[in-house]
Amino acid sequence: MAGLAEMRRLIGILRDGDGEGEPVATPTLDGLAALVDGARTNGLDVTLDADPGRVPAPVELAAYRIVQESLTNALKHASPGRVAVTLAARDGSLAVRVTSPYGDRDGPRAPGSGAGLVGMRERVALLHGTFEAGPENSGRGTVWTVRATLPITHGGTE
């Protein structure tokens, strides 16, 4: 039980920052490095490769929240190993990809409700993007991959 309590505390820090002070403004992609640093502080081995360029605020917020939820899920459920976060603008869209090791792990595994995946899927759908998540084989074993494509332009506006 102590292990689960500690995991919940770490997830709270990852989701909410340090919990001190006033609420922060709407997160932007400029905050990804700090988000990843927080995940590292909580024990994840994370790489970040982000070159999103300029994107509209709704796309920026959705991408940030997808990465945030994916890191939270990795902390709760992933096997030991590297988590890779990649964001790249291409063909009028922002591609977001987060991979984490998938399989058995030592220690407690927080129960999953699926609400995080549902929330990511709904956020992407609101922007007329595509979303998929699930296990896949890679050159380094089985990984859990979250992949979202968010249109940068919608209705002729940027």
TrEMBL record:
Pfam families associated with the record: HATPase_c
Alphabetical list of SUPFAM superfamilies matching this protein: ATPase domain of HSP90 chaperone/DNA topoisomerase II/histidine kinase
Keyword Isomerase: no
Reactions the enzyme catalyzes: ATP + protein L-histidine = ADP + protein N-phospho-L-histidine
Organism: Streptomyces avermitilis
Name under which the protein is recorded: histidine kinase
Record EC number: 2.7.13.3
One Gene Ontology molecular-function label: protein histidine kinase activity
Gene3D superfamilies in UniProt: Histidine kinase-like ATPase, C-terminal domain
The Histidine kinase/HSP90-like ATPase domain, residue ranges: 61-152
Keywords assigned by UniProt, alphabetized: Kinase, Transferase, Two-component regulatory system
One of the GO BP terms on file: phosphorelay signal transduction system
